[in-house]
Amino acid sequence: MKRILLLAILSVVAACTATAAYLFVVRETRPVIACYDPDNNIRSRTRCILNPFRYYIAEEKAEEVLLKLKYGQTQILIPFFEHLEQDNMDHILENESKYRVKSWRIGEWTQNGDELNLMYWVKRENYDWEEEVRFYFSRNTSDWNLVSYSAIY
Fold it and tell me: Where are the beta strands (DSSP E) in the chain?
């Protein structure tokens, strides 16, 4: 009986160690383990299981912007709107002030070479459902640079 219990424990430890080693090795190529749709709606609110060993640099930059938007610091977005006309930029900044970010979670992580697209599902103060916010990054050397931001209000 003790031998079977010991064998079972060793099997579980070996499986956990092998899984952790695999996730560590693929941390750059597989930051998302899987995404699923719990609602099965037309516009699904996906949830992602993320690799715990992934690089967090881009996420930290995106979440820094979301945190500043939560506290009403909409001027953080101005560098990402240089390509827009002034009316469009003012409209987006006005919407960000009116519908302030309340909470967020990652809904999609798409990487293609040196380009990264992070999509977050964001809840806003004035309404209770989630809408998407996208952050676009490009990589030079080893750092991700936030290039663009888009949101649905």
Answer: 32-36, 47-50, 101-112, 115-124, 127-140, 143-151
pLDDT (0 to 100) of residue 101: 94
> Which residues, in sequence order, are bridge partners of residue 133?
120, 151
Backbone angles phi, psi at 51, to 5 degrees: -70, 120
Helices (H), 71-138: 86-98
pLDDT confidence band for 115 (50 / 70 / 90)? very high
User: How far is Cα 151 from Cα 153, in angstroms, rounded to an integer?
Assistant: 6
91 close to 153: Cβ distance less than 8 angstroms: no
User: Does the reported pTM lie above 0.70?
Assistant: yes
Residue for token pair 């309404």: 127
